[in-house]
Write a structure and sequence with these properties.
The chain is of the alpha/beta class. It has 13 helices and 13 strands. The strands form 2 sheets. It has an 11-stranded mixed β-sheet, sandwiched between helices. A two-stranded antiparallel ribbon has the order 4-5. Helix 5 links the parallel strand 2 and strand 3. The longest helix has 19 residues. The protein is globular.
Length: 452
């Protein structure tokens, strides 16, 4: 029963509580027991009694007839770099670990919606690697194959979701830190439009600031596109006194204009990934989409990579304990202006297509432990290239699994990219792909190697 319960959607768990089929405490107990049994090392900081207390309060409020939020009683994990009241935060190192008394704004939204905070998910050391391993908590294994990496830096987030240890997680993404782990662990991930989900209170970005970063983003990971929408709908709360509607989600695949970006300069794509993306494009065409290759040359240049790197330096210069940035404010404004100009040229593409699909990374999760082990960071630039290029132009990217590699047997994914503000469109596209059988959840992983 426990794995069946943990595999239920957010909507189904909500309905089960409303019908008094399950209590929030019963749900929390099942997930806590799963975390205790788990050997992937995905969840690294937790307070089980506090989690049960959160669930108990949900049950008490329901019994009293109170209105509850859309995530009431839903077990969630949070990337360790985010502030969660009562749990320590870290960057995977002892000197970065600290107690926390206040939630980061995004975490506060999840809690206010009734989410039960089960614990913190593991990160790569300093959030600086595509492989989740650190001196404080150790390595997180990929739930599909323990010899392979779960990705990084939100590797614990993706592994927790894939391993049915939580219904969703809050991750962060600068150079693919949501998207690469989601792709390699076979789950859904969403890098929102810049500014849509608060990243304040995420180490090393200050908690006591009114500013949000201009390159990186915070966003949800989940087992399905439906669950991804549930989480994004709670997290995307603009700090403004007005509301305007986002571009609508599409209602069906037939008639959608899909731009195919199958290859980016500097990104080797292996055979099984190329074949999987091509097969996915064929399925889209059979479903009635108009699929055509797009020219993404506006993003594929050395200058764009240089611009991204300089913008990262600007963003990190505002982080805690950062060294002063050795450029003038005029230069910073010039960089931001150039970023907007590149974004404007890129977004002209969406006059002719509804979404753009691309690989997330050029190969499945590599072996990092035991025979055949490789260093993921030796390929760090190519692993993050699609993500960096998409991040520069500030728009949403939704990762969806499209199958298992013919050779590796590991998850392969694509990302659906939109112009800034197209979040409901890219998530909606992923939901339609699942509903119409073009892509969809892979199910619980069948592990092919033991944890050592």
């Amino acid at each position: 029963m426990s794995s069946d319960l943990r595999g239920l959607s957010i909507a189904r768990l909500r309905e089960a509580q409303e019908a008094r089929e399950l209590s929030a405490v019963e749900i929390a107990q099942e997930f806590i027991a799963a975390v205790l049994r788990d050997d992937t090392n995905a969840v690294v900081e937790r307070d089980d009694q506090d989690a049960l207390g959160q669930a108990r309060r949900i049950d008490d409020r329901r019994a009293a007839g109170e209105d509850l939020g859309p995530l009431a009683g839903i077990p969630l994990t949070i990337k360790d770099s985010f502030a969660v009241a009562g749990l320590r935060s870290s960057l995977g190192t002892a000197d970065s670990r600290r107690p926390v008394t206040r939630d980061a704004p995004a975490v506060a939204l999840l809690r206010a919606a009734g989410g039960v905070m089960l614990g913190k998910s593991n990160v790569s050391e300093g959030l600086a690697s595509s492989h989740t391993d650190n001196p404080l908590y150790g390595r997180t294994a990929n739930p599909w194959n323990a010899a392979r990496t779960a990705g990084g830096s939100s590797g614990g987030s993706a592994a927790a979701v894939a391993g049915l240890l939580s219904c969703g997680d809050l991750g962060s993404d600068l150079s693919g830190s949501i998207r690469v782990p989601a792709a390699w662990c076979g789950v859904y991930g969403h890098r929102p439009s810049t500014g849509f989900v608060s990243k304040r209170g995420h180490l090393p970005w200050p908690l006591d600031t009114a500013l949000e970063p201009t390159v990186s983003a915070a966003g949800p990971l989940a087992r399905s596109a439906d669950d991804l929408l549930e989480l994004f709908s709670v997290l995307a709360t603009p700090d403004a006194p007005w509301r305007l509607g986002l571009p609508a989600s599409p209602e069906r695949l037939a008639g959608l204009r899909v731009g195919l970006w199958p290859q980016a300069s500097g990104v080797p794509i292996d055979g099984e990934t190329s074949d999987a993306v091509a097969a996915f494009a064929d399925r889209l065409a059979r479903a009635g989409c108009r699929v055509e290759r797009v020219d993404a040359s506006v993003l594929e240049s050395d200058r764009v990579e240089e611009l991204f790197a300089r913008l990262v330096d600007v963003e990190l210069s505002y982080s805690e304990h950062a060294e002063p940035l050795a450029v003038s404010m005029a230069e910073v404004w010039s960089l931001w202006d150039e970023q907007r100009a590149v974004r404007a040229r890129w977004e002209r593409l969406f006059d002719t297509v509804d979404v753009v699909i691309s690989p997330v990374v050029g190969f499945a999760a590599p072996i990092v432990h035991g025979p055949g082990a490789v260093s993921v960071d030796d390929r760090r630039d190519e692993i993050g290239r699609f993500s960096r290029l998409a991040n520069l132009v500030m728009g949403p990217s939704t990762v969806m699994p499209i199958g298992l590699g013919a050779e590796s047997g590991m998850p392969i994914a694509v990302q659906a990219i939109g112009r800034h503000g197209d979040d409901l469109r890219t998530i909606g596209f992923a939901r339609l792909c699942a509903a119409e059988g073009v892509a969809g959840p892979l199910g619980p992983p069948a592990r092919t190697a033991p944890i050592e």
